[in-house]
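Journal club side-thread
Mid-discussion, someone asked how the predicted structure for our own chain would compare to the paper's figures. Pasting it here so we can look after the session.
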Amino acid sequence: MSLSPPTLASLDYVPFLDPQGQLSPQFDGQVGVYAIFDANQVLQYVGYSRDVSLSLKQHLVRHPQSCYWLKVQTIERPSRTILEGIQASWITENGTTPPGNGPAAAQWNQPIDAKAHMTPEEQNAYAESDDLGKIKILKQVARRVEAEILAALATRGVTMPVRFDPKAKEEGLLNVK
């Protein structure tokens, strides 16, 4: 990589999904900075990762309707300083903070909290349950939310397998494994 990172504008758009509904394997295990754009090529999020593909999969699961285009800059050796510098310069270049780097950052970066999707009946049952009962209810809610997410991904044209961490479901969290 040269001394100065490429500008966001200088990089080509890459489709988020290939024609088969899969993430491209070109970023598997790659360290880099990535920008995610919606269908209208409006910047939604700028992040960095030690495994760009895994991070892209997480974001797609959390925001399938916001993930249509990418711009990626990989680097040879992991350096948080370099990655954060590129991230900051791309956000500055954009002129406004993308939604995923502002107030919605937790929704882009944290596991999906199924508890936020509990029905009033589930909330009441949860409140009245012992620890084992609470785990059972959280797993049921997580499975229901998981089914909704998988349906949204199918509608978006995603065909790659998506598996959530089964241990996290006990806490009512959905995190791609």
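Post-session note: The chain has two domains: 14-108, 112-174.
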